[in-house]
Amino acid sequence: MIKTILFDVDGVLLSEEHYFDASALTVWEMLISCNYLGLAPEKFKTNYNEDEIKELREQVFEKDSILKFMKSRGLNANWDMIYLSFCHQLIHLLSQVKDYEFEKINKWCQAPINRETLLEVGKVLSNYRIQMDFSLFVEEFARSEATKQELFNYLNELAKEKLGIDTSIFKKGELWSVCEHVSQEWYVGDNHVFASTGRPSVQTGKTGFLANETTLAPRREIDELFQFLNAEGFTIGIGTGRPELETIQPFQHLDWLKNFDENRIITADDVLKAEEQLPERMSLSKPHPFTYIMGLLGKETSLQKCLNTRLPLDNAETVLVVGDSLADLLAARKLGCQFAAVLTGLSGKDARSDFEKHAADYILDSVLDIKGIL
């Protein structure tokens, strides 16, 4: 009998669309803005309208085929998707000048890349006629069987193939942090950047998407669902790749927060904090089950107790994870618990075949359908 229900947020309760918009804007800014590579600074601005954002996203993510490919390989965090997309494009750009600038490229690829490095790279690239090509992403990554965090290592393989350089720099490090910060500027806007990242904006003038969340079912009906679950004695929690600010603030605005014990709302901030305590800096983000283990035990539980939790769980049959992605399903499988796939994520109803292939316990059209399986 199910006693605990742990919900993902994006694609289940709230729409991911603005996250993907912000992701596309991030990759675009880092390629063209004079604050980064500066390939076309005259095309950069901070106030793109909806049509312009749609056009940029279609270009950067090849009409979402790149996003869907990464999701199909178990990658769930927008920051990771941004990082992969930008680094792949960076390798492609450098490959066009490797015959002329090999020594400099080799130097850049032997130390962590930061914003100052990108400015230096941009100055060199400005001396040549180069072109971005987003269409190569799926073609080149499809040659690999890499999944999840292994996709980062495949960037190093592409660097060897396309640049002729042995490197290990394309991993979660300084450049990943640059991508994360630019993304947060776009998503939370000027007023919340410092609270979100602890750093001021590099580029001001962004209003953000935070105050414009879209629910994936009527707000009141989701609220009534949470109230029903609490009244029936279920324990409910959240396990999301969103940072805390982007989870708590919308939940307050939507009047959902009252339904939760905040000790069971686990966000990307909790995961990053845990990763920083590990000397080997292993990834604890989904599909690693850490997010849901902490949601089950509570965020006051020690890191070691979470990591030492025996899997599959002894009481696995009492836990239900509700998500929209393969990463959620894989995390649930490691826990040994039941998984309800909701078809309101990026791929919509097209995701049904993937969830059937991976034997999801339940496949639902909406999170509201949870009532029908309890």
Short description:
The protein has about 375 residues and is of the alpha/beta class. It is about 45% helix and about 5% strand. Strands 3-2-1-4-5-6 form a 6-stranded parallel beta sheet, with helices on both faces.
Mean pLDDT across all amino acids: 95
* H-E order: EHHHHHHHHHHHEHEHHHEHEHE
Q: Beta fraction of the residues?
A: 5-15%
Rg on CA atoms, Å: 21 Å
Structural class per helix/strand content? Answer: alpha/beta
Descriptive report:
This protein has 374 residues and is of the alpha/beta class. The chain folds into two domains: 4-15 and 213-373, HAD superfamily/HAD-like (Rossmann fold), CATH 3.40.50; 17-197, no CATH class. It has 17 helices and six strands. It has helices at residues 17-32, 50-60, 65-72, 78-95, 98-108, 115-125, 136-141, 150-163, 174-188, 193-197, 219-231, 245-253, 268-276, 290-297, 303-307, 326-335, 352-357; strands spanning 4-7, 235-239, 265-266, 319-323, 338-342, 362-364. A six-stranded parallel sheet has the order 3-2-1-4-5-6, sandwiched between helices. Helix 1 (17-32) runs parallel beside helix 4 (78-95), helix 1 crosses helix 9 (174-188) and helix 4 (78-95) packs across helix 9 (174-188). The longest helix is centred in the first third of the chain and has 18 residues, at 78-95. It is globular, with a radius of gyration of 21 Å.
